[in-house]
Specification:
Shape of chain B: globular
CATH class of the largest domain in chain B: Alpha Beta
CATH class of the largest domain in chain A: Alpha Beta
Largest interface: A-B, 85 and 78 residues
Radius of gyration of chain B: 21 Å
Number of strands of chain B: 11
Number of helices of chain B: 15
Helix content of chain A: 40-55%
CATH architecture of the largest domain in chain B: 3-Layer(aba) Sandwich
Strand order of the largest sheet of chain A: 15-14-13-16-17-18
Radius of gyration of chain A: 28 Å
Shape of chain A: globular
Distance between the termini of chain B: 56 Å
Number of domains of chain B: 2
Number of helices of chain A: 25
CATH architecture of the largest domain in chain A: 3-Layer(aba) Sandwich
Oligomer: heterodimer
Number of strands of chain A: 18
Strand order of the largest sheet of chain B: 4-7-10-1-11
Distance between the termini of chain A: 49 Å
CATH topology of the largest domain in chain A: Rossmann fold
Order of helices and strands of chain B: HEHEHEEHEHEHEHEEEHEHHHHHHH
Strand content of chain B: 5-15%
């Protein structure tokens, strides 16, 4: 494949933070890789691919999403085994990346195990292969660059921690810049060669400054004062482990080297912290501060933080606790301006007093990367970890159907259903010299056969059972309910869950939306949900029950979850309550998980919803205590 | 025997869809079209008819990717190697519609190990998949919203880069995969991931014709076609040729089409006002406008080209708000044009 001429790195408009992070990583591989996060269409991939031009002696090696495990880590050399009957190691992608750059586009869509193993390899600098009868080790020191769109899901915090730097891209909101982008893209597409030539000068400059920086890197000494500063940063940021310190020093060295200095300034450290610390901050929440430390830092912000710590994962920062409705609009142009001023402030402060100010730092970080993407990361992070701990059902599941992504092979247990040809051939290869082969070059015996292991994303099924009676009709209440459901739907989209919607009012319960993967449709349905009439709670539950039973027959892999939202005011006879309770018990016996969200706000509380919840074995929450954040948490805790 | 294809020009109505498809063949770098609509609205017919309309193009002989012998930037490795020593023999190939069925497995999509070759010769060889076939062709995905998630992932990868990189089942290979992506979906059957949605340059919504006369016309033409497809096709022969010629002329004109700075400003303002995600929207609107101008035989894009382009390029890029449909507020766009 010929090398297509990529859009020149220097011609990308704006995105200075990302550019700097990438250059730091290239100057000093010790600073860890870079994770580039941003919405679609913000030149993430273009920037990374363009790097190829500024590092003429290195290659950027792609790790495609379709990669199977054997190709990533290496496998037995098929041809060699057939010809010589010897086992020889054939390197995979990791075998090619030594001293190069490994690029994973959409890293959040890659299987977590592969991501973890790759990061592990990057950490150790050695790829140790123990598979297919081969034991082999080779050096693999490389710079890892990953890009992701947070809309599509998140990475676990342990994976995040392995990335040295974090940079987020946002789209330009400035009219002039947008026009410049259009101009350059059009010019590039019309004549790529000419366009690249125009920027050749700037590219060459960058190449030589990178080379100079790399040379300079060797002579930079780190004074004790600087090391102390690093430690201060990291303690203040409450980072787990010591990776951050190392990354911080190395990144600061690269920044100094890029600036043409052979000594470090506190400002270098500050800038490095901007890339190194943001994705590690979260870690602190699960580890309570030492009591003495709490007493030491009694500033207002710090108190906030303590609260967070005490509440562990359950609570996130107040500023992230926004209702979901605000999320998309957050990346407004003025947040950019705020960022700049914020950053200036923190810079000024650091000049006045060399001691880094953690609070300010954190603020700056949550803002600079545009609240949108950063807030999203924060929202999803603890969540993913939780899911994994509980059942892992919501991410990936092994599937024995002939569907899903082929990830690796295994020796079949019982009848072979899905032959993994490549693995079978490799298993048979070493014995070919000894076997009778007829007209073929390969002879395959029963014991060589390998089965494909496939994986497929399996989501849960959320069945929302919503009370749409007149008592819910008070406008504000329904708005809150809709808001709450919406935040769950957003989560459902990322996890590829199925959702269904049942509303009960007047005499009956109605399946407004049969269980579907279209979260969009659920959203529309919800929007049009009318209210009025009585509360046939029992009917609502019965309908939910029957929907789930038929579903269960069709797809066993689905884990149904009922989310009942009601004020429990089943304003009919006592019988109605009794019926509802009976139904609730039936649901519990069926082994279905459920959540009850009580919306009763009247002065005299009847507490029917609570007793229904007890009967269903459901987690009970009151709407008022639920912000968007907490609801997500409810969803995970159930299992 | 090759079955005749229903002529493109004989399709009644569906002007938006036809225009979007034509724009994509004039300018393959535009980035595809998503057709939303009910069943039986001539979606597949139009896509197949489109390929038939185009004159043959040059392709390297015996190359499984039909590389363009003149375009060394997008050549497969084999052709590139050959190109150094000799002049590449070429043959004329017709643009095809390559279908990606919803049930396709990942190995067939990206390509995989050639089992037969491995067993017979004990060597690894890459067996090209659908993405290889799709190079320089139209990749047609019917019901794209029902496609398996992991197939969508690889599709995104290839569509973004124009290159398909394969690292699976013992083979490591990469080849050009530049195609016009045409997807259809019925919105009632589930949505499509925003990430994939954004990769489509244009989107159109098709509905069945509601005028009784139009419906009658549809039936009449279909019946005549089924009775004697050759006779029917020859009726449209001239129109077909004219359209084919117009497309080829537009292709030649396209690199020369210019756009005024005011219009760029207009587009940037539009994107900011409408709060679209990322920069693909602006770029696509401009590219579509340039293509529209070329199709019209002009070498300068005008405001009404921008307007028409926005209608095709923006609706599916509107940022979704909670409890709001991601609809394009056309009044905002109109207002911007008024200011001009």
């Amino acid at each position: 494949m010929s090398k297509p001429s990529f859009f020149p790195f220097v011609a990308v408009v704006g995105q200075e933070d990302v550019k700097e992070a990438l250059l730091i990583a290239l100057t000093n591989p010790q600073a860890g890789g870079v994770l580039v996060v941003g919405e679609k269409g913000t030149a993430k991939s273009s920037l990374v691919r363009a790097l190829a031009q500024v590092i003429p002696n290195k290659k950027i090696i792609d790790l495609p999403l379709n990669a199977t495990e054997d190709m990533v880590f290496g496998h037995i050399d098929l041809e060699h085994a057939v010809l010589r009957g010897e086992k020889m190691f054939s390197p995979g992608i990791l075998g090619r990346v030594h001293e190069q750059v490994l690029y994973v586009d959409e890293i959040n869509l890659l299987r977590q195990e592969i991501v973890a193993s790759i990061l592990n390899t990057a950490d150790r600098g050695v790829n140790a292969v123990e598979r297919e009868g081969i034991s082999y080790q080779h050096e693999a020191k490389f710079t890892l660059i990953g890009t992701m769109n947070p809309e599509e899901g998140s990475l676990t915090s342990s994976v995040l921690d392995r990335f040295g730097m974090f940079a987020s891209v946002s789209q330009e909101m400035d009219c002039e810049a947008r026009i410049e982008i259009m101009r350059r893209v059009l010019a590039y597409e019309q004549n790529p060669e000419l366009f690249c030539q125009q920027y050749q000068g700037a590219t060459d400059e960058l190449i030589s400054s990178l080379q100079a920086a790399r040379k300079l890197l060797g002579v930079i000494t780190v004074s004790n004062a600087m090391i102390e500063l690093t430690a201060q940063y990291c303690t203040k940021a409450n980072v787990a482990g010591h990776r951050a310190e190392i990354f911080l020093i190395e990144a600061a060295k690269a920044i100094a080297a890029l600036a043409g200095r052979d000594y470090l300034l506190p400002a270098d450290m500050e800038r490095a912290a901007f890339f190194i610390l943001p994705h590690r901050m979260r870690k602190e929440e699960s580890q309570p501060l030492e009591p003495e430390e709490q007493e030491e830092n009694q500033t207002d912000d710090q108190i906030d933080e303590q609260n967070d710590d005490q509440n562990n994962d359950q609570d996130n920062d107040n500023n992230e606790n926004q209702p979901p409705d605000n999320l998309p609009s957050d990346s407004s142009p003025d947040s950019q301006d705020e960022n700049d001023s914020e950053r200036d402030e923190s810079e000024e402060q650091s000049q006045e007093q060399p001691e880094p100010n953690h609070n300010n730092d954190q603020e700056a970080i949550s803002e600079i990367d545009t609240a949108y993407s950063n807030a999203k990361m924060a929202v999803t992070l603890p969540k993913d970890r939780q899911v994994r701990q509980s059942s892992g059902k919501r991410s990936l599941t092994r599937t024995n159907l002939h569907q899903g992504r082929y990830v690796r092979s295994c020796i079949p247990k019982g009848k072979l259903t899905d032959l993994a040809f490549d693995a079978t051939l490799r298993a048979a290869a070493p014995y070919q010299r000894l076997r009778e082969k007829g007209n073929c070059c390969m002879s395959i015996k029963q014991e060589d056969l390998r089965q494909k292991v496939r994986e497929k994303r399996i989501g849960n099924t959320f069945l929302f059972v919503v009370d749409a009676s007149g008592s819910m009709g008070a406008r504000e209440r329904m708005r809150a309910v809709k808001g709450a459901i919406f935040s769950m739907l957003q989560d459902a989209y990322q996890k590829r869950d199925q959702v269904g919607l049942i509303a009960f009012r007047r005499q009956t319960a109605e399946v407004l939306l049969p269980v579907t993967r279209s979260v969009d449709l659920a959203q529309k349905c919800l929007q049009q949900l009318p209210t009025g009439g009585k509360t046939p709670l029992a009917e609502g539950l019965a309908t939910a029950f029957s929907v789930l039973t038929t579903m269960g027959k069709k797809e066993r892999q689905m884990q149904p979850i009922i989310v009942l939202i009601t004020d429990g005011r089943t304003n009919r006879s006592d019988d109605a309550i009794g019926d509802a309770l009976k139904m609730a018990e039936k649901i519990q016996l069926s082994g279905c998980s459920s959540v009850v969200i009580d919306t009763e706000t009247d002065f005299i509380k009847l507490g029917i919803a609570r007793s229904v919840a007890q009967k269903m074995g459901a987690t009970y929450y009151h709407l008022q205590e639920l912000t968007g954040q907490k609801i997500l948490h409810v969803v995970q805790n159930m299992q | 025997m090759r079955r005749g294809v229903y002529p493109f020009t004989a399709i009644v109505g569906q002007e938006d869809m036809k225009l979007a498809l034509i724009l994509n063949v004039i300018n393959p770098s535009l980035g595809g079209v998503l057709i939303k609509g009910e069943k039986g609205t001539a979606k597949s017919t139009a896509v197949r008819a489109l390929a038939d309309l185009l004159p043959a193009m040059e392709g390297v002989k015996k190359c499984s990717f039909r590389c363009d012998p003149k375009d060394i930037h997008h050549m497969c490795e084999a052709c590139l190697q050959k190109n150094k020593g000799e002049v590449l023999a070429s043959q004329s190939v017709k643009m095809k519609v390559v279908e990606l069925p919803v049930s396709a497995t990942e190995d067939r999509v990206v390509g995989t190990l050639d089992i037969e070759h491995a067993i017979k010769c004990g060597e690894k060889k890459f067996e090209p998949g659908i993405l290889a076939q799709a190079n320089r062709n139209i990749l047609y995905v019917d019901e794209i919203n029902l496609l398996d998630d992991h197939v969508v992932d690889v599709l995104l990868d290839a569509a973004a880069m124009g290159v398909n990189t394969v690292e699976r089942e013992g083979v490591s290979y990469s080849h050009p995969a530049r195609f016009i992506l045409v997807g259809t979906m019925n919105p009632e059957e589930g949505d499509i991931r925003p990430q994939l949605l954004d990769r489509f340059a244009l989107s159109v919504t098709v509905t069945g014709e509601h005028q009784p006369e139009q419906r009658v016309e549809v039936i009449k033409r279909r019946l005549t076609y089924e009775q004697d497809s050759d006779a029917f096709s020859s009726q449209y022969q001239q129109e077909q040729e004219e359209l084919g010629k117009a497309i080829m002329q537009a292709r030649q004109l396209l690199p020369k089409v210019t756009i005024a700075d005011e219009l760029l400003i207009l587009v940037a303002n539009m994107a900011i006002k409408l709060e679209v995600d990322g920069h693909r929207a602006d770029i696509t609107v401009i590219k579509a406008a340039l293509t529209l101008a070329a199709f019209d035989g002009r070498n300068c894009a005008r405001a009404d080209d921008i307007k028409a382009a926005a209608k095709l390029a923006l609706p599916h890029r509107m940022r979704r708000r909670p409890f709001e449909e991601g609809v394009l507020n056309w009044e905002t766009v109109e207002a911007l044009f008024q200011e001009q």
